[in-house]
Amino acid sequence: MLFLKVPRKDAETIRQHLIGGGILAKEYPVINEGDFVLFAVIRPYGGFEVVELEVEKRPAQYKKLKDALSGLMDEGELESLVTSFDIIGDIAIVEVPDELEAKEKQIGEALLKVHRNLKTVLKKLGGMEGEYRVRRVKCIAGEDRAETLYTESGVKMKLDVAKVYFSVRLAGERARIAKLVKDDERVLVLFAGVGPFALVIAKSKPKTKIVAVEINPDAVRYMKENISLNKLKNIEALEMDAKKLTTNNEFDRIVMPLPKSAHEFLPVAFKAV
Description:
Helices cover 26% and strands 24% of the residues. It has helices at 11-20, 65-69, 75-80, 104-114, 171-180, 196-204, 217-229, 266-272, and strands spanning 2-7, 31-33, 36-40, 49-52, 86-88, 91-94, 120-124, 137-142, 147-152, 155-160, 186-189, 209-214, 235-239, 253-255. The strands form four sheets. Strands 2-3-1-4 form a four-stranded antiparallel beta sheet. Strands 5-6-7-8 form a four-stranded mixed beta sheet.
C-alpha cells in the first residue's frame, strides 16, 4: 500500500486535503514515525515522499448491530434479531431468539465490533430465577467471565452478573431517589443487592446513615467490597432475610427495589419508620 510521508507539524492540514480530494485510504491506519506521519493514499500527492508498506486494513467499523451482521444473515434472520440489550461495565447481556441460536457466536462477535469498549458478550438463558433473582447466562463472544466493574453517578460497582441481581435500567431511578434524600436522614435499603441504591445515596449525601439489607451472600460480599472501593463510611451492609429484620422507628426513609413482592415486606417497613 502507498503511504504519503508528511511532516508532523503539517499532518492535520494535509490530511484534510487528502480527504477533500478523495485521496486518503481511510481503511488503513495512520502511522507515526518520529517527526513524520504516514497516510495511506491511492496516489501520490503534493510532491511528498511516497513509501510502499505492507499494512493490514483497519477492522471494519459499524454503528449498528444489523450492519455488522448484514453479510452473515438473510433478511428474515435480521428481522428476528433482538437489537436491544444491556451493557454493564464491559459486558453486554443479550437475548438470542431460538431461531438464531446457530448464529449466536456471530451475533456476539458483531457486538464486540460495534461496541469497542465491550470485552464480553453474554446470552440470557432465561429469566430471573430463585430467591436471589439471578439469571443464568452463557458467554458467546469475548472473555469468558461474568464479573465486571460498572460506574454510575460517580460510583464504582464490582459485580458478577451470573451471581447477583443487578439492573442497569434503574440508574435513573437511583439518581432520582438520591436527590430526594435529605442530609442527615437515616435510610434503610431492603433487597440491596451489590448496593447500587445505597452507594448512590451515600455518595451524593455523605451525612446520611444507611443500612443495606441483602440475603444473597455473594451480593453482600460485593456490596462490602464496593463500599470500600468508593471509600464510603456511612453504609452498614447486613446479610439477612429482610423479613427477620427487627427495628422500630429508626429510619426516615425506606427503599424497597423489589418489584413483584415488595408488599410482603411492608410490615417490616412500617415498623422501621
